[in-house]
Automatic annotation (TrEMBL):
Coiled coil: none annotated. The keyword Isomerase applies. It comes from Georgenia faecalis. Belongs to the class-III pyridoxal-phosphate-dependent aminotransferase family. HemL subfamily. The modification N6-(pyridoxal phosphate)lysine is found at residue 270. InterPro entries: 4pyrrol_synth_GluAld_NH2Trfase, Aminotrans_3, Aminotrans_3_PPA_site, PyrdxlP-dep_Trfase, PyrdxlP-dep_Trfase_major, PyrdxlP-dep_Trfase_small. Keywords: Cytoplasm, Isomerase, Porphyrin biosynthesis, Pyridoxal phosphate. Pathway: Porphyrin-containing compound metabolism; protoporphyrin-IX biosynthesis; 5-aminolevulinate from L-glutamyl-tRNA(Glu): step 2/2. GO terms for molecular function: glutamate-1-semialdehyde 2,1-aminomutase activity. This is Glutamate-1-semialdehyde 2,1-aminomutase. Its EC number is 5.4.3.8. The lineage of its organism: Bacteria, Bacillati, Actinomycetota, Actinomycetes, Micrococcales. It is found in: Cytoplasm.
Length: 436
């Protein structure tokens, strides 16, 4: 049978920019033709040609329980039978908000939206509305969705305003943002010393995983809390990726409770919706009450709190018990260790970086020697070694994220059989990386 993917991709590109609904899916940085997926179950995805892959993308994070968990699917089917969308309050969204609050002690109230981008966009507007200030501080290499003010790149000096990170972002929008190197408390102190009274919020990934996995240095997030509090700015912890994935209360549950820092606002998505379009902004009640209709900060959504999405989220959180997290942690440890060992055996300079059960592989001498603590360091990798590594894994039936700058996602459904297939594929992929 001829491979149907090239023809499908050509057809897709004729009607969809790049043939994809989100850029990274186009295989731009690894080359080749993306697989069109027909179905997924547990740790596996199956393409339209019937080939099955062990999936290490898991929809970029949501699939904590594995694909198509029967109880989650049943909950969505039952909800669908009752109606797809009402545009009115539902009991399920109240229950889900209560479940989020019960898990994450930093959350008093929750506003549901449909995407992580909306959650961080709302956080930015709310922070500005609450403080009467315009400036947002973000860190280079952190991704918070395609919000104008957060698609920004560092300007020429430390406390200078950012430049647009995309065509179409007005310079005036980027100029409301200051971009600081990650894990650099001294740089942030300098920014606050100069502009502290103008800063509405510092927005940070709880543990960055969008420049590869770059854990916060011990005390870094706590230092953000201290500096923002000293200057009357808010701390927004973006847990869209880490929330309900690295533990029952996300990264904050792993680190923040012990370190004694509490963010003002948190954003969630991905696992929260169990694979359906659902995200949320949570945090201090006095801040959340500033949102419409109780407050002056406008925010709304036709499909917000959609009943199918809240059904999937509720079922997912109910199932995500300590045993699930233990299984994901263990699977991640085995695969991360094996990836490191395979590269080691082939003499490929690398470093495996971890944040809870999230990990990614960094390639190159600099990463191997110094580790990666910032975006500047993340960019100094042997990126040319990743495409052959990726394609060798794909050919062996393992679907990695099609970019070096992404975490590898495990799930509670990655059982021994799935993990065996990953471990069997790694040595050949490491050989391909070594030969590049
Ligand atoms: N924040 C973080 C930390 C993310 O990883 C992402 C998505 N990868 C977003 C926000 C944006 O979420 P969405 O793609 O649902 O808009």
């Amino acid at each position: 049978m001829t491979d149907p993917m090239p023809e499908l991709f050509a057809r897709a590109r004729a009607v969809i920019p790049g043939g994809v609904s989100s850029p990274v899916r186009a295989y731009g940085s690894v080359g080749g033709t993306p697989r069109f997926i027909a179905s997924a179950r547990g740790p596996y995805v199956t393409d339209v040609a019937g080939r099955e892959y062990v999936d290490l993308v898991m929809s970029w994070g949501p699939g904590l329980l594995g694909h198509a968990h029967p109880e989650v699917v049943a909950a969505v089917q039952a909800a669908a039978a009752r109606g797809l969308s009402f545009g009115a309050p539902t009991v399920a969204e109240v229950e889900l908000a209560e479940a989020v609050r019960a898990r994450v002690g930093a959350v008093e109230e929750v506003r549901f939206v449909s995407t992580g981008t909306e959650a961080t966009m709302t956080a930015v507007r709310l922070a500005r509305g609450a403080t009467g200030r315009d400036l947002i501080v973000k860190f280079a290499g952190c991704y918070h969705g395609h919000v104008d003010a957060l698609l920004a790149e560092a300007g020429s000096g430390l406390a200078t305003f950012a430049l647009p990170g995309s065509a179409g972002v007005p310079a005036a929008s980027a100029a409301t943002t200051i971009v600081v190197p990650y894990n650099d408390v001294a740089a942030l102190e300098a920014v606050f010393a100069e502009r502290g009274h103008e800063i509405a919020a510092v927005v940070t990934e709880a543990a960055p995983a969008n420049m590869g996995v770059v854990p916060p240095a011990p005390g870094f997030n706590a230092a953000l809390r201290r500096l923002t509090a000293e200057h009357g700015a808010l701390l927004v912890l973006d847990e869209v990726l880490t929330g309900f994935r690295v533990g029952p209360a996300g990264w904050w549950g792993l680190e923040g409770v012990a370190d004694g820092y509490t963010p003002d606002l948190l954003t969630f998505g991905k696992v929260l919706g169990g694979g359906m379009p659902l995200a949320a902004l949570g945090g201090r009640a006095d801040l959340l009450e500033l949102l419409a209709p109780t407050g002056p900060v406008y925010q709304a959504g036709t499909l917000s709190g959609n009943p199918l999405a809240t059904a999937a989220g509720l079922a997912t959180l109910r199932l995500a018990d300590t045993d699930v997290y233990a299984r994901v942690d263990a699977a991640a440890r085995v695969v991360a260790d094996a990836a490191g060992a395979a590269l080691e055996a082939q003499g490929v300079p690398h470093r495996v970086q971890r944040a809870g059960n999230l990990f990614s592989v960094m390639l190159g001498e600099a990463a191997a020697r110094d580790g990666v603590a910032s975006y500047a360091q993340a960019q100094r990798q042997d990126v040319f070694r990743y495409p052959p590594f990726f394609h060798a894994m794909l050919d062996a039936g393992v679907a990695l994220p099609p970019s070096l700058y992404e975490a590898w996602f495990l799930s509670a459904a990655h059982d021994d059989a799935a993990i065996e297939r990953i471990l069997a594929a790694l040595p050949g992929a490491a050989r391909a990386a070594a030969a590049a």
